[in-house]
Amino acid sequence: MPSAPSVKLNNGKEMPLVGFGLWKVDNATCADTVYNAIKTGYRLFDGACDYGNEQEVGQGIKKAIDEKLVKREELFIVSKLWNSFHDRERVKPICKKQLQDYGIDYFDLYVIHFPIALKYVDPSVKYPPSWTSEADKVEVSKTPLSETYAAMEELYNEGLIKAIGISNYNGALLLDLQRYAKTMPQCLQIEHHPYLVQKDLLAIAEELKLTVTAYSSFGPASFVELDMTSAKDTPLLFDQQDVQAIAKKHNKSAGQVLLRWATQRGVAVIPKSNNPDRLAQNLDVCSFDLEKSEIEKISSLDKGLRFNNPLNYGLAQITGIFA
């Protein structure tokens, strides 16, 4: 059974370098998908309120624990605070609801999903709330990130979460975070692939001792199924000649090369697959090393091309915040 090495966070907690991403995992098959991923050797599961499948993820975890495939303390469970719960008084209640949906007592890492505060939506009315309010439009809240982060620190101090994460923050927001954080976060999650290397942001994160987790490691492949024009018009990274040549040389798949490009540089990854063989392949991406010239060649594909941008979802009111 393949396994992934871990990286030590700035609070001493160990986090697997390769995990399983739960975005777009269908509710009908989610519990079995999680259970099978645990059987394959995955220990980190990256979820979120917005994915709408947290109860099913919890069912898969419970089945694996009940069958003694794994102990809770061997798992690293990640979830995220959605935009409409940024008000300080909303953070703890929604975190507790999410823990209840998972059927667990704490999150190993809890992440501010976007640095965007939206108007509160009562979970009894719409859950997950997505980007729109009860009036079915984007309505921004006036809650500053500093207040939201203070509430995250309360969760951390109370033991409801074992590490604090932030996601989709740019360099300026990271530098501002230093000014109000009493406890610096442990992890920064960003869109990161050879078309969007974000070299300067990675350098800032390293200076601040933040472990970086990459999502959408395969670039446009994650967004084609969303019928996103920019993704459909962009060549797949799997098909890039240099990526294919490097994969052939190492007798690995193009996907494994793309994941190794990240992990060899200390960036954690959270791919997903329903294919058992690919599940194992994705987990086994630290058993070979790329040459420095190969890493540089892959990095040279950088286009500064971001797919997870609100404008791509028709949310022009809040676009540009990640630039």
UniProtKB/TrEMBL annotation:
Annotated NADP-dependent oxidoreductase domain residues: 19-302
Keywords carried by this UniProt record: Carbohydrate metabolism, NAD, Oxidoreductase, Xylose metabolism
Any one GO molecular function term: D-xylose reductase (NADPH) activity
Pathway terms, separated by semicolons: Carbohydrate metabolism; D-xylose degradation
CDD domains referenced in this protein's UniProt entry, alphabetically: AKR_AKR2D1 (cd19115)
Pfam families named in the record: Aldo_ket_red
Family note: Belongs to the aldo/keto reductase family.
Protein name (database record): D-xylose reductase
Species this chain originates from: Recurvomyces mirabilis
